[in-house]
Design goal:
The protein is elongated. 68% of the residues lie in helices and 10% in strands. It has helices at residues 9-19, 28-40, 61-92, 97-112, 115-134, and strands spanning 7-8, 44-49, 55-59. It is mainly α. The termini are far apart.
């Protein structure tokens, strides 16, 4: 959201709420420590301090580069998954495509999970595999 223009923490909270149609608004105790951490990492910076110590945050060049890198990685992952889906379609035919597609999608999503959630996802997949073997 800071890519568009510099914003205060309150503006960020409000925008998140609007984008999620009010279904999720992080609390201040979550957002402000995150903003502080991003500032310390050099990804954002305080552009100005307004009335009542209102901080306006903006992306730094490092922050813009990080966003670009994340988007590029996502595009590369999507391209890689689509390549393998198409290859499987050509090899195994249309009747097996839904299964192949599901397997590729699962791999894609597990790869994109944060490390702390990846282990749990692998446990779930192993349990599902064992259940399928019993069929």
């Amino acid at each position: 959201m800071l890519e568009m223009k510099p914003k205060s923490g309150y503006e960020l909270l409000k925008e998140i709420s609007e984008k999620t149609n009010g279904s999720w608004t992080p609390n201040k105790g979550t957002l402000y420590p995150l903003l502080k951490s991003l500032d310390e990492e050099g990804l954002i910076q305080v552009k100005e301090i307004g009335k009542r110590s209102k901080r306006i945050y903006e992306l730094t060049d490092a922050g813009k580069e990080t966003i670009t890198n994340i988007r590029n990685m996502k595009h590369e992952s999507t391209a890689r998954v689509n390549f393998f889906k198409n290859m499987h379609f050509e090899i195994f035919g249309e009747e097996n495509m839904s299964l192949v597609s599901l397997m590729m999608d699962m791999r894609f999503y597990v790869e994109d999970l944060p490390n702390e959630k990846k282990e749990r996802a692998i446990e779930i997949l192993k349990a599902a595999f064992e259940e399928i073997q019993q069929l």
